[in-house]
Design a protein that fits this description.
Bound molecules: pyridoxal-5'-phosphate
Oligomer: single chain
Number of helices: 15
Radius of gyration: 22 Å
Order of helices and strands: HEEEHHHEHEHEHEHEHEEHHHHEHEEEH
Largest sheet: 7 strands, mixed
């Protein structure tokens, strides 16, 4: 439906047409059936390389069972925000288990990872303070930083020297906060957390690390890149999500007991939002337990990811700095990325094209995510299709 010419909202139609003209218009597709390595999208079947369900847990029967059990006990809705009556024993159990899993004093749940960032950062800093942020931080971190009204000093992606020079030359501030993804969601590379932790110590800054894509995947216990690199004790505020490798929904923050107490008292997205159904907490609790009991899921995933990156590199693709299950295949313009994604979809592979605003202009790519559920045959088949694209010089 179009907006009539004479309404104040008419500009929206023009703006959409200009997105179309630039190859930037996005369209929703409707999935039917479970989230697995093979999915049905708009009535067609695809091998799925676009999911964040890295450990293949989203459709795990043990999680469904946990949901069913909790529904039989407490039903569905929670009816209130956590501070009123929406914090059930299921939420509390999950928070306790998350804190144990993460090795921190405490943890608190948010309705999403986005809400965790949007709520947390403005409780830590305000207009009297400075944030130092990686230029490729996730949108939720960017928005959270803006919401805080702190001065935002942006360093070049993963550039520790640039960060240090910004820290050295920064104006006086009440508090200083370094904010970074641990595993970057578009490039699939790691933040240099060892060096950042040293700068945090030297300059007396708080450090917030968002492990959204790394929780459950990296580190001996699956606690993310900060565990992998041995810097957990320098991470003052650790953000995670339950919606990616954990296969459920929701976000969380973990850290000291006083930090969590502060968030419960001050984080607006925590206070002014109804808690998730207890069933969601039950699901995530089951998933976190599986992650602890089945480390083979992450080791297998990482082995598959490494061999996939090697295969694609040997075909001559530019994968940037990826060192993870997130593999960006650099294409260039939005139009070419969309054409490549469409060609793969005709072969039965879902590999999303990533365009602005997710990446800067000219850095468009195919973003291929490897998951535990992918069989060797699936990985070989998509490599074959990419090889053909390459020979066509797409
Ligand atoms: C996906 C993502 C989020 C948002 O998590 P949701 O639970 O999906 O809202 C936050 N931070 C980063 C770095 C992410 O990649």
């Amino acid at each position: 439906m179009t907006t009539p010419n004479d309404t104040p909202l008419h500009w929206v139609q023009d703006a959409l047409e200009s997105l179309d003209a630039d190859g930037l218009r996005r369209h929703l597709r409707t999935r039917r059936g479970p989230q697995r390595a093979t999915i049905e999208l708009d009535g067609r079947s695809f091998v799925h390389f676009g999911s964040n369900d890295y450990l293949g847990l989203a459709a795990d029967a043990r999680i469904t069972d946990a949901v069913r059990d909790s529904l039989a006990t407490v039903g569905w809705g929670t009816g209130a925000s956590p501070l009123i009556t929406g914090h059930t024993d299921y939420h509390k159990t999950l928070e306790n288990h998350l804190a144990t899993f993460e090795g921190t004093e405490a943890a608190c749940l948010f309705v999403s990872g986005f809400a965790a960032n949007a709520g947390t950062i403005p409780t830590l800093v305000n207009a009297s303070d400075i944030i130092f942020a990686d230029s490729k931080n996730h949108a939720s971190l960017i928005d959270a930083c803006r919401l805080s009204r702190a001065t935002i000093s942006i360093y070049e992606h993963c550039d520790v020297q640039h960060l240090e020079s910004l820290l050295r030359n920064a104006p006086e501030a009440r508090r200083r906060l370094i904010v970074t993804d641990s595993l970057f969601s578009m490039d699939g590379d790691f933040a240099p957390l060892l060096e950042i932790a040293a700068l945090r110590d030297h300059y007396g800054c708080m450090l917030l690390v968002d492990e959204a894509h790394a929780t459950g995947v990296f580190g001996p216990n699956g606690r993310g890149i900060s565990e992998l690199l041995g810097v957990e004790s320098a991470v003052d505020i650790k953000v995670g999500t339950l919606s990616k490798a954990v296969g459920c929904a929701g976000g969380f923050v973990c850290g000291s007991a006083s930090l969590i107490e502060w968030l419960i008292n001050r984080a607006r997205s925590y206070i002014f939002s109804t808690s998730h159904p207890a069933a969601t907490a039950a699901a995530a609790d089951a998933a976190v337990q599986i992650i602890q009991e089945e480390p083979f899921r992450r080791s297998d995933l990482l082995a598959k990811s490494t061999s996939m990156r090697e295969r694609l590199t040997s075909q001559g693709w530019d994968l940037g700095t990826s060192e993870s299950q997130i593999i960006p295949i650099r294409i260039g313009s939005a139009k070419r990325a969309v054409a490549a994604s469409r060609a793969l979809s005709e072969e039965g592979f879902f590999v999303p094209a990533i365009r602005p605003p997710s990446v800067p202009d000219g850095e468009c790519c195919l973003r291929l995510s490897v998951t535990y559920d992918h069989s060797e045959e699936m990985l070989q088949a998509v490599s074959g299709a990419l090889q053909s694209l390459r020979s066509l010089a797409v």
